[in-house]
Amino acid sequence: MKPQPHDFLAQHTYLTRRFFLRSGAAGLAAMSTLPLFAKAAERDPALQQVIDNLETWLTKPDDFQDVSRGNPQPHSLDEARRKEVGLTRDTWSLEVVSDPENKARIRNPLTKEKNTAFTFKDLMQLAETHAVRFPKIMTCLNIGCPLGNGNWEGVPLREVLWLTKPSKDLRRVFYDGFHNDDPKQLFRSSLPVGRVLEDMYGLPPVILCYKLNGQWLSPERGAPVRMVVPEAYGFKSIKWLSHVFLSNRVNANDTYGEKNNDVDSPLKTFCETISLPKTIKPGQPIPVTGYAQVGISGLQKVQVWVQNDDEERVAGDKYFTKAPWSDAEILPPPQNWGGDIADNRIPVPTQGFDPETGQPQTWPLRLSKAHWAALLPGLPPGKYTFRCRTIDDNGAAQPMPRPFMKSGRAAIDQVGFTVE
Predict the structure, then answer these.
(1) Deepest in the core among 62, 188, 257, 294, taking most CB within 10 A?
(2) Distance (Å, rounded) from C-alpha 381 to C-alpha 378?
(3) What helix, strand, coil percent values describe the chain, rounded to 5?
(4) Radius of gyration over alpha carbons of the chain, in Å?
(5) What local confidence, expressed as pLDDT, does residue 397 receive?
(6) Do 289 and 373 touch, CB atoms closer than 8 A?
(7) Which of 68, 118, 128, 113 is nearest to 92 (CA)?
(8) What's the whole-number mean pLDDT along residues 246-268?
(9) What is the secondary structure of 298-336 as a DSSP string?
C-alpha cells in the first residue's frame, strides 16, 4: 500500500511502546529515557507528521490496485459493448445451473434459455431484506501488498442458491465471470457448499456484491456484480460474475490451482512498513509507520526489531525467533474512515460495527487492516536493518503458522537504513 496524503488518525491518544534495540550503548541510553506511552499532545512532531500522512483505513474505490485479467480487460470495454455483453445493471443476468459433468439435483435452474436467469432487478428485490455489509481487505495471493480495504455490500449467495430448489448431490459451488467469450480466458473459482450455506466461525457470508463503500461497483471493481468471499484471497472474489454451477464434485477446480497455488488457504496475518527514513542523523529519533493485514487468526500485536548490519546473526534462526523483538503500538480506530463513504460514517448495519455508535465492536477488525506506528530511539552511525512482524491471536509469530508463499505472502518485512 502506498502512503496517500489523507488526513488520517489526527487525534490518536496513544504513542508507541519503547523499543529494545541491539544497537550499542548509545541506543540503549536513548531507549532508557523513552516513555512507555505518551499523550497525543506530547507526541514527537516527526512521528505525528508520518501518522497524519498515512493512507485512510478505507481505500477509495478508484484507488484500489488492479490485477484484472482478460484481453481486453472487461472493464476497458466501452459502455455500448458492456451493455451488449451484459455488464451493466440493466443488462446483467446470472445463470445458476447444475454442473453438467457432476450433476447436482436442482428443480429450478436459472437460465437464459428458459428466461429464468437471475437479474439485477431480482438481486435488488432480495437486497431489500437480505443485504449485508462488511469490511474486507482485498489481497492477491501472490502479491505482498494488499490491493485495498473496503466496505462491501451484497446479498448472500445462498439466497440465490435456494431459488434453484436443490434436492441432493450438492457438494461444491463453482463460478466464473465474463471472459470475452474466449474459453482460454475463462477464470473460475469454487467453494464447498457448506461455506456458502453457513457462516461458520463468525465469518460474514459469501455475497453477490454490487456496492463498495456505499457506491455502485465500477467496471474496474467488477461491476455490475462480483463475488466477494470474506476470508479468502482475491482470486475467490470473481469479478463480472456470469455463471454459478452447483456440483456434486468433491474437489476444487479453481483456475488459480493450475499454477501451483493453494486455493483453500484463508487470509494470513502479516505486517509491512509504510514509512521509514532511508538516512537518519546520529541520535535522532526515528519515526516508523506500517500496516497489518488482520487475517483469519486475528492480530494480537505488531513487533519490531532493529539490527546493526555489523552484528553477527544467530545461526539457524531462519525466522528470527531469538531476536529481541519489542511491541509497537497498533493505532486505534480513526476519526476519518476515508474511502469516500457518505458523511464519514460506516453505514448501519455493517458487520463488526455497533449500530448505535457506528464504532467497531472490536479492534483491530479481523479480515481487514490496521495501522501501527513507532518512534525508535536515536542510534549511533552505521548501517541497520529494520524488521517488523505480527503475533496473531493464537500466539503465532509471522511468518508462522503458514510460511509457504503459495498459501499467501507472510515473509518478515525488512527495510535497510543508514545513520550518518
Answers:
(1) 294
(2) 10
(3) 20, 30, 55
(4) 24
(5) 98
(6) yes
(7) 118
(8) 95
(9) ---EEEEEEEETTSPPPTT-TT-TTS--EE-EEP---S-
**Residue 35 pLDDT exceeds 50:** no
Mean pLDDT of the chain: 90
Residues in Cβ contact with 79 at an 8 Å cutoff, skipping those fewer than 6 apart: 88
Are 173 and 106 spatial neighbours (Cβ–Cβ below 8 Å)? no
Closest listed residue to residue 211, CA positions, set 221, 198, 199: 221
Q: What is the pLDDT of residue 144?
A: 77
Domain(s) of CATH 2.60.40.650: residues in the chain: 24-55+268-419
Q: What is the DSSP-derived secondary structure letter of residue 353?
A: B
Kindly report the pTM of this predicted structure.
0.89
**pLDDT tens-place string over residues 387-414:** 999 999 999 999 999 999 899 999 999 9
Cβ burial, residue 153 (10 Å; 0-12/13-18/19+): buried
- The highest-level CATH class for domain 61-259 is alpha beta
Average pLDDT, stretch 300-322? 93
| Residue ranges of the chain assigned to CATH 3.90.420.10 | 61-259
Q: How far is CA 224 from CA 54, 115, 216, in A?
A: 31, 20, 8
What CA–CA distance (Å, rounded) separates 86 from 77?
12
The CB-side HSE value for 263 (13 A sphere, CA atoms) comes to 19
pLDDT at 47: 85
Determine contact, residues 228/236, Cβ cutoff 8 Å.
Answer: no
Cα distance between residue 302 and residue 107, in whole Å = 51
What pLDDT score does 40 carry? 54
For the 24-55+268-419 domain, the top CATH level (class) is: mainly beta
